[in-house]
Write a structure and sequence with these properties.
22 helices, Electron_Trans/Redox, iron, about 525 residues, two-stranded antiparallel ribbon, mainly alpha, membrane, metal ion binding, 4Fe-4S ferredoxin iron-sulfur binding domain protein, Alpha-Beta Plaits, about 40% helix
């Protein structure tokens, strides 16, 4: 048990470390999304929906193969979702209600539902893939909350640090990112944790699609629970098993559910239980659970039907050749994002790109683009600009929904075009001198020109030079809605090929201002006034 706890905490610590390093843009590219690429259901369903093999998801195949040797040990030792649920179970405690037997096959039905939707070309894996869910919890809720508390603590001790001459502490700033949908994510996990009152590890036992996939390979693992003839049939092991894997006869084990956690061995008064490879002397395997085919079929049909209904929506992103859908309104996708139809098949809504975004401009959306786009990332320029020298989102994406770009290619990954609202612009409408948008534009895409009847110079945007970064919208001094807004007009999204070459072919002229020019470089989230303005 001690060894298991150490392995669990080490794995969770590594997961959180990589997540924190992603947010600090310090993790190596191969490691930042390692855990997400281990998720079997995330990998299989994403490839099924996109109808393409994704080599980057090979760690999931290793996890599935481990089931042949160690059963569902990944769930019991490595998965951060399982470790988090174990901790919540300890706090909440176990209820007295015994779950109904029919719940035992729910994980298969969830998997069939998601598989049916994927076969129809709609990825709903984000609803249940454990590594996607747990990344959202820690990346969008827990770590930002910890940073917020840390910032408050620093503010409290700052006067003392100043008096003591601790300048490093007195000037230390912790800018905690903030995300939309945070209460929804927290509510979902509150419900998952509350299920412990019905049974320990309720999610892992009854609902997890990755656990169901791993169970397919764990029917006869090499290392499994073995019971010697010293067993007296007291039943302590059965009552202590967190997965309900031990049958009424304690000699019998459902290996598809066994985590190799050794809880049963730790409570056995006769030391009759071991977990070793080799031949089985006693019949230690219960009849394998087999979900009713009709239920699986109905669940798969339900998933496919959900996909069909989603396809019936006006705003569902489809192939560019499909003229029956309305274009998705005002969604600025991250630089390097695939065309919308492909993006939503590959995006698993893990939130890694949002956690990695240094300016906090990437936010999850709700349902403005339909169910299939829910919780996918969008740039929010009024909150913060998208730094044209940053490639963090593409480097952190586990499935390739956002392409990893070099810095040279990133400059050409046009995310939209800024448009001046002349009815709100201080120069155009009120004839007040304002040069903010021109000064902050790193592409030098805005020119101040004289117009007849207007005593001050007014801004005009050169669409071929605008990269859609949103610096102008962020720093526009007009309150509430900015007078210059970035929209997806002219966005450049490719599933393959060079952004620079395609940009040149389209007549774009995207170049950053040289150092020492107008560029303001990397930025941090801020709600302060525009450059040159004071509150």
């Amino acid at each position: 048990m001690v060894v298991r706890r150490v392995v669990q905490l080490t794995s969770l610590g590594l997961f959180l470390t990589l997540l924190s390093l992603a947010a600090a843009a310090s993790a190596p590219d191969w490691a930042v999304d390692l855990f997400q690429r281990m998720d079997p259901s995330l990998a299989a369903l994403t490839m099924l929906a996109s109808q393409k093999w994704i080599w980057a998801l090979w760690p999931a195949a290793v996890v599935l193969a481990s089931g042949l040797l160690f059963g569902r040990a990944f769930c019991g030792y490595v998965c951060p979702m399982g470790t988090t649920i174990d901790g919540a179970d300890k706090i909440i405690g176990r209820g007295k209600t015994k779950p109904a037997q029919w719940l035992r096959g729910m994980g298969w039905l969830v998997l069939a539902f998601l598989g049916g939707a994927a076969l129809a070309g709609v990825s709903l894996v984000f609803l249940a893939a454990p590594l996607s869910l747990i990344t959202r919890l820690y990346g969008l809720v827990a770590l930002p909350a910890a940073e917020l508390l840390g910032g408050a603590a620093v503010d409290i001790v700052r006067p003392v640090a100043d008096d003591l001459g601790l300048n490093w502490l007195a000037f230390w700033q912790i800018n905690a990112p903030r995300f939309d949908t945070v209460w929804f994510v927290a509510g979902v996990f509150a419900a998952i944790f509350a299920l412990a009152r019905l049974a320990p590890r309720f999610w892992c036992r009854y609902l997890c699609p990755s656990g169901a996939m791993l169970a397919l390979f764990a029917a006869k693992p090499l290392i499994r629970r073995r019971v010697s003839d010293q067993c007296t049939g007291c039943g302590k092991c059965r009552r202590a098993c967190p997965m309900g894997a031990i049958e009424q006869n304690p000699l019998l084990t459902n290996h598809r559910d066994c985590l190799l956690c050794r809880t049963c061995a730790s409570v056995c008064p006769e030391n009759a239980i071991s977990f070793l490879p080799g031949p089985i002397a006693l019949p230690t395997k219960a009849p394998a659970f087999s979900p009713i085919r009709r239920q699986l079929l109905l669940s798969g049909v339900g998933g496919a039907s959900t996909a069909v209904l989603a396809y019936g929506g006006l705003q569902l992103p489809r192939a560019a050749s499909d003229k029956t859908a309305l274009p998705t309104p005002m969604l600025l996708r991250p630089p390097g994002a695939l065309p919308e139809h492909d993006l939503l098949k590959l995006c698993v809504r893990c939130g890694l790109c949002m956690s990695a975004c240094p300016t906090n401009t990437l936010q999850p959306i709700w349902f403005e683009a339909g169910l299939t786009a829910a919780f996918s990332p969008t740039i929010t320029p009024r909150l913060a600009p998208c730094d044209p020298r940053c490639t963090a989102c593409g480097q952190s994406c586990p499935t390739g929904a956002i392409r990893p770009l070099t810095l040279g290619e990133r400059v050409w990954a046009k995310t939209g075009t800024a448009v001046v609202d002349r009815q709100r612009c201080l120069a155009w409408n009120q004839h007040k001198k304002c040069v903010v948008c021109d000064e902050v534009c790193p592409y030098d895409a805005i020119s101040l020109v004289q117009q007849p009847g207007i005593p001050v110079s007014v801004p005009l945007v050169d669409a071929d030079k605008c990269g859609g970064c949103g610096f102008c919208e962020k720093f526009c001094p007009v309150r509430n809605k900015a007078a210059i807004v970035v929209n997806p007009l002219g966005e450049l999204r490719l599933d393959h090929g060079s952004y620079a070459q395609n940009g040149v072919m389209r007549g774009l002229n995207l170049h950053l201002v040289p150092p020492g020019g107008q560029s303001h470089g990397h930025v941090s989230p801020t709600n302060g006034p525009a450059p040159g303005f004071t509150d």
